[in-house]
Amino acid sequence: MTNQLDDYDVKILQLLQDNGRLTNQELSEIIGLSPSQCSRRRITLENNKLILGYHARLSPKALHQEVIAIIEVKLLNHETVKTHNFLNFINNEASIIDVFKTTGESDYLIKCLVSDLDMLNDLINRIFTTQLISHIKTSVVLERVKEHGSIFDY
């Protein structure tokens, strides 16, 4: 599907990336297609997994979770069972909001959101107690400079 995107599809993706609440009527007025054509195209983009979802971006302050940390983790080894156990652990931790499997010195990059440094310390201790980790490095975010940037340039 990605090689079949035309200018209208790209414009729909750009507009929805900036404002996922746009209606098909609003899209049609902006890009010059009928609302039904916009609806069909949006559904096709969703079905082809080019639109992964619609979300409200919440402020950490609204959640009383104002400390963001990035944790780099290196596993002891990559045995299937141990890797599966680690992934189960991170999927069950509510304060872990993003996890990326990476190349380089770390195996995983974890973004977490906690209320304070004591809660961050508790999370790090829980990660260590899995006994699956050989190395961990934590950085506390001081300022959110750019987040959720646009994929498309205008």
TrEMBL record:
GO term, biological process aspect, one: response to amino acid
SMART domains linked: HTH_ASNC (SM00344)
Source taxon at top rank: Bacteria
Record keywords, A-Z: DNA-binding, Transcription, Transcription regulation
Presence of keyword Nucleotidyltransferase: no
A GO term for molecular function: sequence-specific DNA binding
GO cellular component annotations of the record: cytosol
Domain HTH asnC-type: 5-71
UniProt entry tagged with the keyword Transit peptide: no
Protein name as annotated: Lrp/AsnC family transcriptional regulator
Higher taxonomy: Bacteria, Pseudomonadati, Pseudomonadota, Gammaproteobacteria, Vibrionales
